[in-house]
Amino acid sequence: EAQVTQNPRYLITVTGKKLTVTCSQNMNHEYMSWYRQDPGLGLRQIYYSMNVEVTDKGDVPEGYKVSRKEKRNFPLILESPSPNQTSLYFCASSSQTGGFGYTFGSGTRLTVV
Amino acid sequence: AQSVTQLDSQVPVFEEAPVELRCNYSSSVSVYLFWYVQYPNQGLQLLLKYLSGSTLVKGINGFEAEFNKSQTSFHLRKPSVHISDTAEYFCAVISSGAGSYQLTFGKGTKLSVIP
User: Any chain A CB within 8 A of the CB of B3?
Assistant: First the structure.
């Protein structure tokens, strides 16, 4: 089944403790993105990647890092999480040949206390 | 820079009535346009997309949208809604000439279908 897999689904952590949210897709998509969703603000892009080793900042990149060492994986790293990073996070992937219809993961609900 | 404005944050409608969710975009280059749906406690699902060609686009679950370049709009419509259509709907745009193919979302419209 074609899908984007995020882990974990739920995470509670403390301020300053480094964490990684994993994202993997099995569709050989070249484009991958991370979004955060907050009430009333919609989805805002954190980082995106156009292919292996090619990443760029989205609208809200502060406090986040990403890497794209393999085509299928696009982990999101929070080096020193803070409470304002409490949010619902989505990973998504798409391809030009697929008409850019992004496929989304199920989401990761992160709480930073 | 590209942006999307969804004009209504909440839309209540009675079951079996028609609905239109409004979306306007801003971009200086050609665009690709999308509507996504998010059911409660779920991820996002693609409803329909406009890349080129016919300006009337049909999607899943009986939804359709019309691309209007002169009004920079991409409104979503359904002639008769069901209870199961209760969800949040997001309009999104990619500026095809920008080279990066970033997907930018509006803030969403919550559709509530009243029995």
Answer: no
